[in-house]
Specification:
The chain is mostly helical and 410 residues long. It is built from 21 helices and three strands.
Amino acid sequence: MDVGERRRRGPASAVMTGPLAPYESALRTELGRVGYAASSMRDATRAMARLSSWMQDKGLTAVELTQPAVEEFLAAQWARCRTERAARRWMGAVLRVLRGRGVVPGRDRAAGDTAVEALLADYRVWLVAERGLAAESVRCYGVQARKFLVQLADPLDESLARLDAATVTVFMVGQSTAAGSVWSAKALVTAMRSLLRFLPVQGLVPVSLTAAVPGVAGWRLGALPRGLARGQVRTLLAAHGTTTPVGLRDHAVLTVLACLGLRGAEVAALGIRDVDWRAGEIMVRGKGSRVERLPLPAAVGEALAAYLTGGRPSCPCPTVFVTARAPYQPLTGSSVRAIMGRACQQAGLPRFGAHRLRHSLATDMLRAGAALAEVGQVLRHPSQLSTAIYAKVDHETLRTLARPWPGGAR
């Protein structure tokens, strides 16, 4: 290695010792592949060198780098520099590469491979393979299932073998009371019934206990769809500047939400190949694995083109929207909600969910004279009953149905 190369790599990269030294080249290769800058690769390598040296002092091999060992190392680093961010910086990237190559134990196994986590992993596989649920639904079901499983006594298999209807009902009543909203309670009910269908399939409970999950009182079409005023939508779309890659991305996300009425998870799943520029169409992968085509409005096309040509990093991700920093990964439904939340904050508005823009599009269409059937086509509702709730905000049409007040003015 010449003097110039040593100067570029820095003194900490000269020689790595310890059990992780053989994987320095693999770390650099993987970080370069996913788009890390040269300076970031250098810092990550230094972090792995510190970890490897600490492991050597402790007499640990690579396979003994469990999560408790990682936490012990981070605590030692924190004691040295007294900065949590500095202690943990780059550890995520280093461990992700090492775990991906099978060098060190995975996170679940490192955490002790608990019975709950093992069962949840099998449950997620079942949800995808047998029920065909989308990734966001699998995540939500897993969150709700964990709430129930972690409160069971150890060992888990014996608690499940003794599980009865009373235990399920008591848990559901307590959780529903603390849910905070009817929709949260309904989501818990749906997830619990799904879990209780899965457990007998695995032979973990003797009989199905889905009937023990009480329903939540709620009436269809009982609420009003809450949309935003046009001025508020314009303010949200202008909240993110378009002079930075992140601003271009967030503006494009909000434009898709506002102009096409997509759900947050649908925006996150939008693939590069799903946009047909020549035909002026966009392919949407919605609920129930449904794939439908929608026209590509000019505003959406311009926002997407601006992001793809001026803001999106070069990476192998198949989705349109990706994270702003390496390692570049597709956005999630949670990321879309966070983008909406930041826009509300910058626009000086209360925090709204991304679904609020879907309601806004539907109410604007009705006010412009569109029929309910047309609204249902744009929102891709499989049933007209799903669209019927928007009839409540079509005040002009409702006036024609109102009967005169008895004895009132003619």
